[in-house]
Amino acid sequence: MRSGQDSWCARNLVLAVVLPLVPLAAAAGADERAERFRAYDARRMEALRKIAEGTSLESATARLYLNKEVNQANRIVMETDFEKIYWANNTSLIPLYEMFNADSGSRAKLLSREATDKILAYFWQCFQPGGKAGGHIARHYHFLPDQPWQYWGNQNHGFVYQSLFYTAAKALKGVPKYADQFDPAKHVPLGAGVDDLKDHPELAKITMADYAERARQMWSNRLLWMAQQGLWAEDMIYRLSNVEGTYNLAYLDRAPVLRKRAEMINTPPVCLTGYSGPPQARGDDPRPALAAVRAADGGPKS
Q1: Exposed / middle / buried, residue 100 (Cβ in 10 Å: 0-12, 13-18, 19+)
Q2: Can you list the pairs that 122-130 forms with residues at least 24 positions away whose Cβ atoms lie under 8 Å?
Q3: Strand partners, 133
Q4: Which pLDDT score is estimated for 233?
Q5: Can you tell me the distance from the alpha carbon of 51 to that of 28, in angstroms, rounded to the nearest whole number?
């Protein structure tokens, strides 16, 4: 069995080959870009075929992406003990669910009803008091759109858990047996900017749909805030989770402004050069890319 760290790296590999590569698309002129993309796509498909030979959730996602051995992919999902997933690998459920769930899969509805329901039940379990996500307490708090710097811990933990609970809330809000049970006083711990609901009366009666919408607003505001204040607060090994989070938002979310901001964060000067401070503080000048984040969406500011 692979260690959690090995699985973490494999998760990011499947992310890179399943989701389109923004930096490549932005790095060259049209002709060169087309040729480079053809070469990249050949390597991507070969990597997917190799990943699909395994027995992990990443292998299930690769099989479904290739529309190959769909029954085996569903069998892997059903036989995987989600509570034993390395905590940072919980985000592997995001592309699996968003692209392939039986109700609204954006690529193809290839997950079985049973596999989809298993993922939904796990999402709901993560909301429970003391609920676990891969053997760890499923850390979550209220999403605060006006405080996008609230990471629920350090930055990579925030990118993992806040993207997981954003996806979970979007999924569960449409399932009455879960959404109707949601009680913010019971299912959302205090902390990370909310110490007492008496000080935040607007949160006392929110629904699961409200929780999901507040998460969307927070993520949209966070990407804009990061572009203005500096991006990565951690070194490259931890940034794997952060870049993965922006890829998931850029290619799997359905809010156009949020997608555009996440896409622009993934441009080369931003996600590849290690930029982590105000633009004027680095030798590599990321200001054109960061300005694009602010200007390209053309929509509301949250």
Answers
A1: buried
A2: 122/82, 122/93, 123/167, 123/168, 123/171, 123/172, 123/178, 124/168, 124/172, 124/178, 126/164, 126/165, 126/168, 127/165, 127/168, 127/172, 127/182, 127/187, 127/188, 128/187, 129/186, 129/187, 129/189
A3: 136
A4: 73
A5: 29
Give the list of residues 6+ apart from residue 267 with CB closer than 8 angstroms, or none.
22, 23, 26, 289, 292
Beta strands in the chain (DSSP E): 132-133, 136-137
The pLDDT, as a whole number, for residue 278 is 39
C-alpha to C-alpha distances, 201 to 12, 53, 198, 267, 302, nearest whole angstrom: 39, 51, 6, 39, 21
Asked if residues 27 and 15 have their Cβ atoms less than 8 Å apart, the reply is no
What is the distance of C-alpha 265 from the center of its chain? 14
Cβ–Cβ < 8 Å for 109, 101:
yes
Q: Are 142 and 193 contacting, i.e. CB atoms less than 8 angstroms apart?
A: yes
pLDDT of residue 169: 97
DSSP bridge pairs for 10: none
Q: Which pair of tokens denotes residue 73?
A: 């992919």
Q: Which residue has the tokens 């029954």?
A: 71
Name the nearest CA neighbour of 64 among 47, 247, 254, 72: 72
Instruction: Using the CB atoms, write b or e for 138-161: b if 16+ within 10 Å.
Output: bbbbbbbbeebebbbeebbbbbbb
Residue 24 and residue 37 in contact, taking contact as beta carbons nearer than 8 Å: yes
User: Taking Cα atoms as reference points, which of 53, 54, 47 lies closest to residue 14?
Assistant: 47
The pLDDT score that the predictor gives to residue 40 is: 83
Identify the pLDDT of residue 295. 52
- Residue 83: its pLDDT value, please? 85
DSSP 8-state symbol, 194: B
For the chain of 302 residues, list the mean pLDDT of each consecutive stretch of 10: 49 56 56 83 88 92 94 97 87 92 94 98 92 81 93 86 94 96 94 91 95 95 82 72 80 86 70 42 40 48 42
Entry pTM: 0.79
